Amino acid sequence: MKLPVYLYGHPVLRAVSTDITPDYPGLKELIADMYAAMYESEGVGLAAPQIGRNDRIVVIDADPVKDSFPECAGRRMTLINPSVEVLDGDRTSMGEGCLSLPGISENVPRVEHIMLKWVDENFEPHEEEIFGFLARIVQHECDHLEGKMFIDHISPIRKQLIKAKLNNILNGKVSVDYPVRFAPKHRK
């Protein structure tokens, strides 16, 4: 099944997601569909809210960026009910994009050292220190589970400068090569 990526302005992207349990119906199929949607849209991560579900599920395959970020080599992860703890370090700014914000890229300040706790698709617990760009990917995707997007981390001036692009997404004036779902038209 081809899952559409929900775009900026859709209410599902601003809701806080809920934990899931091992009896979640169709979990294996959903995870497979999420990976397929991520690969089709050429992303390195996808959170369940981006496909219209407010469930605490994230899929990541950071391997495509391993040439620039060696810590991403071979990192394919299914994160269920993840939690992120900032460990230390200054925030560094780096460009980020998002499948739900096509055509927009901004420098986003994030820490580069986190502790990630999660369960995998078999509900086996994991805990790992994550560094560098992989930590950025994890934080970006886990933000979606809290109803946040990367544009929430940029300055008001930068947000004002991209307002026309955001409005274009809201009004359906964006072209992408993957299935999408736009926000309902009856926005206030």
Could you describe the 3D structure shown?
- With 188 residues, the chain is α+β, with helices and mostly antiparallel strands.
- Helix content is 22%, strand content 26%.
- The chain is built from 4 helices and 9 strands, in the order βαβββββββαααβ.
- It has helices at residues 27-40, 132-145, 156-161, 163-170; strands spanning 5-6, 45-47, 57-61, 76-86, 92-97, 105-110, 113-119, 125-131, 180-181.
- The strands form 3 sheets. A 5-stranded antiparallel β-sheet has the order 2-3-4-7-8. A two-stranded parallel sheet has the order 1-9.
- The longest helix is centred in the first third of the chain and has 14 residues, at 27-40.
- The radius of gyration is 16 Å and the shape is globular.
- The model has no long low-confidence stretch (mean pLDDT 96).
Helix-strand blueprint:
Layout: E1 5-6, H1 27-40, E2 45-47, E3 57-61, E4 76-86, E5 92-97, E6 105-110, E7 113-119, E8 125-131, H2 132-145, H3 156-161, H4 163-170, E9 180-181
Parallel strand pairs: 1-9
Antiparallel strand pairs: 2-3, 3-4, 4-7, 5-6, 7-8
- Globally, the shape reads globular
Task: Sketch the major β-sheet.
Answer: 5 strands, antiparallel
Number of beta strands: 9
User: Would you tell me the overall average pLDDT?
Assistant: 96
* Estimated structural class: alpha+beta
Low-confidence blocks of residues: none
Question: Whole-number radius of gyration?
Answer: 16 Å
Helical content band: 10-25%
Alpha-carbon distance between the two ends: 32 Å
Q: Please provide the ordered H/E string of secondary-structure elements.
A: EHEEEEEEEHHHE
Percent in strands? 25-35%
Write out the strand line-up for the largest beta sheet, numbering strands in chain order: 2-3-4-7-8
